[in-house]
Amino acid sequence: MQPRIIDIAKAANVSPSAVSLALNNKEGVSIGVRQKIIAIAAEMGYKNTVLDLYETGEKNTIKFLKIAKHGHIVNERHNAFITDYIEGIEIGAKKRNYKLEVSFFNKISIEEIVNSQKDIAASGLIILGTELNAHELNFFTELPQPVVFIDTYFPFSAYDCIDMDNFDGVFKVIQYLYNAGHRSIGLVKSNYETRNIKDREAGFREAMEYFSLPVQEKFFVNVDPTFDSSYLDIRKFLDRTSSLPTAFFCMTDIIAYGCIKALRNYNYRVPEDISIVGFDDLPSSTLSEPPLTTIQVSNHQIGLRALEKLSERLKNQTNNFPERILVAGKLIVRDSVKKL
Fold first, then answer.
1. How confident is the model at residue 318 (pLDDT cuts 50, 70, 90)?
2. Which CATH number fits domain 5-56: 1.20.58, 2.50.20, 1.10.260, 1.10.3470?
């Protein structure tokens, strides 16, 4: 007969709640107390997944796949951004005694990537889905392991997705611009459509409506989201327009950098002549000229939450109800917006 939690607690001279935390590998007890409880539980014949790992010394292996399908969004300028995801995943993995492996795939077909993962020993996968579309998820159904996607979400899929709350972030941008006196706000958007990009445009339209501001399509600029290409695309826009809004919301920081450079080359000053806001809070945003007001994405929290969700799937694979989890960001105010 398996011992009860209360029996282990008496033997270890701790509370039943401490035993529960230790045996389920949760925070709330010190490493020393946790090891003591697990050792006593093992001696008494208690069995569960965490205890089995402790006794055998084995670790579940979790894999993180960084996929850059075309590289127009996931590229070297986003390395620090993605490193934050990995750090969040790694912290969660260490708490649960998981081993973390990371693989990078650059401009390789999704079918090839999936095929390369079919025979791996990993217990579960966390996949950077930034550049993926919903149809490509069909390939991942061939994998036997639980899969969690981050940096995107797919409303009609059978997968758990952890993403930034784009609607909340864009609302904070428009609210800030509105409070700063801006009533004419343009949108610089990526011509590579991802789930995040679609949501940011929808969020822009919704927030403009909320503040009773006109959505002026003449101030919508489609650009390639890389720095050099966005700079060239904005130059083309400036060549054919004779008027500008008082502010531009740029869908990414990279696009904002290209926008600022193009405006400067046309003798527009930021923020004196036009204000600019980005999205992502890349490290270089503090060094841009001027320092960029932007939305800070909770990458660390997204990575950690993805590992937690994957861990839940590993413990209970019979629950087939997928979850879409959105993590809110924070407006970081710097010097690229003028108060009118």
1. low
2. 1.10.260
